[in-house]
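PROTOCOL LOG
Step 1. Enter all chains and additional molecules of the complex.
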Amino acid sequence: MKKTLSIILAAVIAASATAALSGCGGQKEDKGEVNVYNWGEYVANGEDGLMNVIDEFEKETGIKVNYTTYETNEELYNMLKNSNVSYDVIVPSEYMISKLINENMLLELNFDNIPNYEHITDRFKKLPCDKEGKYTVAYSWGVTCMVYDKTKVKQKPTSWNALWDESLKGDILMFNNSRDAMAIAMQLCGIDPSSCTKEDVDIAAKKLKEQKPLLKAYVMDQVFNEMENSQSAIAPYYAGDIATMLENNEDLDYALPEDGSNLFYDAMCIPNCSKNKENAEAFINFMQKPEIAADNCRYLRYGSPNKEAIELLEEDIRESELTFPSEEYLNKCYTFSNVPDEIYAYMQEQFVKIQAD
Amino acid sequence: MKSKKPSIPYIIWMVVFTMIPLVMIGITAFTDKQGNFSLEPFQKAFFYTDVFLKSFWIALLSTAISLLLAYPLAYLINRMKKSTQTTVIMLLMIPMWMNFLLRIYAWRTLLQHDGPLDTALSLLGIHGTYMGNTAAVVLGMVYEYLPFMVLPIYTVMGKIDNSLIEAAQDLGSNSFAVFRKVILPLSIPGVISGITMVFVPSASTFLVAQYLGGTDDIMIGDVIDKIFWTDQNTGAAISLILMIFIFIFLILMNFFGDEEAIA
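Step 2. Run joint prediction.
Step 3. Record the structure below.
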């Protein structure tokens, strides 16, 4: 009985294997695959009348995309460092890019395979984290700013100080993320966050401790619900996301701090565990096709570094100060690119301590 | 002699997914960033004593409230018709098919300013936000873990031999005496496993406090989550301490369980 069963099983396996093989041979040509590891909800996905960018890429090139997502730069880093999974395209933020470059974890790009690179504006070509522009193709960028409820905050805020406003006690939200929270506090204390020391972190931590009794909560994604449903008065967040909130609640408005804020960007890179480098470059190139980049920008509402794509955008997006702050404003902003590991770890530790205290 | 072969996959599973990770957490907790032996992670972990205490307090409170709610419920369900019992247990289980984060999100909406609860209570002239405090966190926990308290108690009560109850009645016990002398002692094993199943996950849970609580409501699970971003050693040390406390708690529970069984 057992024997017959195993014979049948073997036959089934053999049959399906040949079927699979012939199936492959039947297709025109196997172009291989590309393993993309990106932020969650970070490409146009076919909703709201936009393209499904991943499907389009597969259709155009015949390369199969294995698409997975992460929620934090640290999660990405830990996957690259501690697992055997191979990724071909990743989209880390500026500070993580400098860390990956320092640790030799990125491959140099072959720009012959990425002709669309010429569409990138100069500001985003040689990024501070990759000064020679060898490893990165900018994907999107933005600034941090404030969103507030006009029914609760009478005057348009002009500085981060509004987040320390005693009269709004219990109605203020704050970033639940050490880097962004610390940067705001540092700016208020006159410290340049892009070159901060441990002492600077201590000063900022003190400032954040003063703020804690005034806060309603430390939030990240919950900020959408809080602000869109008029639950809180004011919150700092990423400008592109604030544009989305504004569409969902008429009472909301935004305020850019006059003395500048944090300019952040994410760029596409190829990690050194990549096994399909050419396909990866094809993917990066595809993402910088003007119409693709434009749809991603419509979806994300974060700034696009692609000047041809910007031309294709509707005027209200192109003119929006949230998606595209002026060049003048950007010059006042700082970027977090080269904060050493140990300072960042110290920042994180101090931030957890503020919350635990 | 019975063959041990069928247990081999389970042993491999245990080694790979329980033993090795435990050893790795142990090693990480006792080393510094460079991988040298160090007690620094434990020193750092001491900073979070208050958070530990708060987490245990929230967990104890949630467990106590769950028990108070679950015990009568389990008792009532057991006295229903068999078919009704199945339906009620089913109704208890259905919410658990949904992702727990979604349910916590729903609680936010229910408790928020101008939310359903607020609207209802403002008819009575009471107005406010019912979220952002420790009570909301406890509420979220009780909601989350109540089924884990009901099910074991219900199961154990269902197994109580009816003839024991009849015997007690024949010997002249009123229904309170029947409950106190027969049902309560015999249902203790269910209570013990219910307490364990609620206390352990609620002491180590994360996100619930962040979603429903205010700035002061942070639990040890949240601290571990955040510390792990940049400092795995301290994170491992805190996890280890948490595990030790839970282990002690389990031993204590076991001890009570055995006592009851003897008596």
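Step 4. Note key features.
Chain A touches chain B through 25 residues (CB under 8 Å).
The beta strands of chain A are 33-39, 64-70, 89-90, 137-149, 172-175, 215-219, 234-238, 252-255, 263-268.
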